[in-house]
Amino acid sequence: MNKILIANRGEIAVRIIRACREMNIKTVAVYSEADRDALHTKLADEAICIGPANPKQSYLNIKNIIEAANITKADSIHPGFGFLSENAQFAKICEESHIRFIGPKSTVIDLLGNKAHSKDLMKKEGIPVIPGSDGSVSNLKEAILVCEKIGYPVLLKASAGGGGRGIRLVRSFEELETYYPIVKQEAKNAFGDDEIYIEKFLENPRHVEIQILADEHGNVIHFGERDCSIQRNHQKIIEETPSTIVDEKLRNKMGATSVKVAKLTGYTSCGTVEYLVDKNKNFYFMEMNTRIQVEHPITEMRTGIDLVKEQIRIAGGEPLRWKQKDITFRGHAIECRINAENPKKHFMPSPGRIQEMNLPGGNGVRIDTAIYNGYRIPPQYDSMIAKIITYGSNRNEAISKMRRALEETVIDGIDTNVDFLLEIMRNPNYIRGNVDTSFIEKEKISDDCR
Fold first, then answer.
1. Which of 26, 285, 287, 450 is 20 to 30 A from 212, comparing alpha carbons?
2. Can you give the pTM of this predicted structure?
3. 233, 229, 154: which is closest to 196 by C-alpha?
4. pLDDT tens for each residue of 114-136
5. Could you give the domains of the chain?
6. Are 133 and 110 in contact (CB under 8 A)?
7. What distances in angstroms separate CA 14 from CA 21, 39, 59, 159, 387, one per listed residue?
């Protein structure tokens, strides 16, 4: 491929542009009117405006993005994560327009994009899934029957969901009656699809995912696990690899299962299979994300392999350059997501102008960001503004580096969650690895943060 249009913004757009530059591939940045001065527009070889600040009129505007690719003669599109990255219709239009979509085929995105349908497929193939509805539930009466069968508590989840949206915990029949129509409407508003499904709520599980690469020649390999259990409002904020609950035997078993999922669905490109793991180390398939993940840098730090470059090579038809036995894991890596938000005000977003900024550095510290001194963070988009990644020979060293990196971080002019993240890095239970998806609520981190 000769020229890639990046259909995204922020740090992931910058990340992709840098990979392309190292591969001697020309890039096109697209931007909304709110992002006219964004860093990704400065780093790309070309930049083109695709609409107003509202994402529906710009970063979610398929027609404008395809036109931008045609105008700039881009032969490929990289969707990054979020926005249109898991939109089967967008991938299909790219295919029909003879533009290479850097991701799996549209039919595969469609298959895996509906969480209820994909879980039903995995169940039929003997892959462990959390007990729940067989596909989506069409009405409240059906939902009541499912809940009576599997027992409360349950989760109501949007079938087309992602990013922690469209999820409600239900502990009783009364709550089911209340939340069922609410989740239906939330799913419709967020994803344009009001299908929802039900699954049993596992108390205090770990959220563990497996990174895979699959080429167009039938080769699939995994890159170990990432533990994403530290979450707020069902959204990840800290990830690490390896997981403190995963031993070599479990890693191999989860890795083999993830390879099976990819082969079963005809998956190609970079992808992630997500699981919940209970206290007895039983794991259950949740979903497969058909894109590069926010947390991919920690896998890169531990394996030494650039996943974005490999994603691009796979899209170009190249076979994988490794066998599973070639993948080695070294040390420990942690990622903290820096968000423009106020943890003491229910994580209320904090857009505005950065007046002064100092980002950390040093041995074992990586920063993925698109912010700079004087940059104005627009209110229309996700609040994540940077990722701090640290690498150490072991977990304690990675934690020490992260504490030091967060202590060095200065972002004045807006509120951020830096102190909140630092509180977690100092928490005795986190340091001991005693974490699960309810960690923040149990430890009352946002209350302790000063």
1. 26
2. 0.90
3. 154
4. 887 898 899 999 999 988 898 88
5. 3-102 (3.40.50.20), 131-200 (3.30.1490.20), 206-448 (3.30.470.20)
6. no
7. 11, 7, 15, 31, 12
